[in-house]
Amino acid sequence: MRFIRMPHDRIVYLLLLVSVVLYFTDYFLFGRPGEIGFGFMSNVAFLPVYVLFVTLMIERVLREREREAMLKKLNMVIGIFFSEVGTRLLRDFLEFFPDGGELRQKLNITVRWREEDYRAARDFLKSHEIRLDARLGDLPRLKEFLSERKGVMLSLMENPNLLEHESFTDLLWAVFHLIEELQARHCLASLPASDLEHLAGDMKRAHNHLLIEWLSYMSHLQKDYPYLFSLAVRMNPMNPQAHAEVA
Fold first, then answer.
1. Model confidence, pTM
2. Of 92, 188, 199, 224, which cross-links 139 as Cys (Cβ 3.0–4.6 Å)?
């Protein structure tokens, strides 16, 4: 069936015409112009309140639906980031820790985690300064991996929905800055100690943002996508023995 769309101004005129016809019909059938006038004025007096109430309610419903749709799209973008970049980057950063045992223990997410566990993990990250040593890990391999993912990072940063997620935007900027710092150095094998310290600071900034967003992402998966959460737990980058096979 094909529907004919009517212009809005015609709809308004049609409704006004229907209203006039109904009032005249009421007058000719029942008379009582005083009651008709009283009823008309009562409806007119209530009309601003009615319009205000309906407008606010509709606007709130539409805004909430728009926000839910935006968050859903944004979570998909965050999922792509962790699938293509974030999870591997978390695993690679562990190589630069003098002792990452405590961090792995505090962030060893399991299927039994609850909101209080995520809250405790966030409190741990806020209260403990995470130090990285650029001399411990494989900087050339990190540079190669991030350079390969630079196109993915650029495409993510072009997404307009990221304007609504400031912390994730900060994460992308931190990782992208680390990519530029590594690419600006042609040789990473014989860097002075001062430059290695500078790179460690860039990695620390990116890693801090990454850990916070990863906790939020895992909590989101656990609530809304249990099947994705199951795989993410089995591939937990904080667990050296992680594997995709179901034990």
1. 0.72
2. 188
